Amino acid sequence: MEMQDTVNTAVRNGASEKTYVTISIGGELYGIDVMRVETVSGMVEMRPVPNALPYMKGVITLRDLIIPVVDMRIKLKLDEASYSKNTVIVIVPVRGKTIGFLVDAVLDVTTLNREEIQDPPHFAADISSDCIDGIAKLGEKTVIIMNVDRIIPEDELESFDIQEIQ
């Protein structure tokens, strides 16, 4: 498996490097620690959830698990867009719950040297910069390194209790 080979290489190279799955959201490049990504799913039918948070698009069933799906464009306060053939759901564990992040595309798996990752700047936006671990250059592009555990605040994560959805 290609992703596993990349992970094994990073482990052999020691702690000075870290491997990320790079994704596209609203034309921007983001990185998620490859060790946090359980799987990537193509678009599947989502069931809406009544009275859900605005960014929760619904739930999917994947390998007999019901997984809430977060539209990352809405969560990051970007314009909504139509889903395309590249739109995917990245499945990650978030503080004990399995969540799907709906993103525009998964682009690549890349390894960055830790010295290449700079501290995130302080943003004057509504979205908290707490969910950003750093920023790095990848060729001519900038990669925003996300901390998946901080994307959804604790009080909002409680509303993702899928026991009520089942």
Quick structural summary:
The protein is mainly beta. Helices cover 11% and strands 42% of the residues. The chain is globular, with a radius of gyration of 16 Å.
Rg over CA atoms, rounded to whole Å, is 16 Å
Biggest beta-sheet profile: 5 strands, mixed
* Helix/strand order, N-terminal first: HEEEEEHEEEEEH
> According to CATH, what is the topology?
OB fold (Dihydrolipoamide Acetyltransferase, E2P)
CATH C-level category: Mainly Beta
Query: What level of helicity do the residues show?
Result: 10-25%
Number of strands: 10
Note the gap between the termini. 33 Å
The CATH homologous superfamily is named CheA-289, Domain 4
* C-alpha geometry: globular
Mean pLDDT: 84
Overall structural class, as computed from helix and strand content, comes to: mainly beta
Major beta sheet, strand line-up: 8-1-2-10-9
The fraction of residues assigned to DSSP E strands is 35-45%
Q: What would you say this structure looks like, in words?
A:
Helix content is 11%, strand content 42%. The chain is mainly β and 166 residues long. The strands form two sheets. Strands 8-1-2-10-9 form a five-stranded mixed sheet. A five-stranded mixed sheet has the order 3-6-7-5-4. The protein is globular and about 45 Å long. The protein starts with a helix and ends in a 9-residue tail after the last helix. The relative contact order is 0.22. The N terminus is likely disordered.
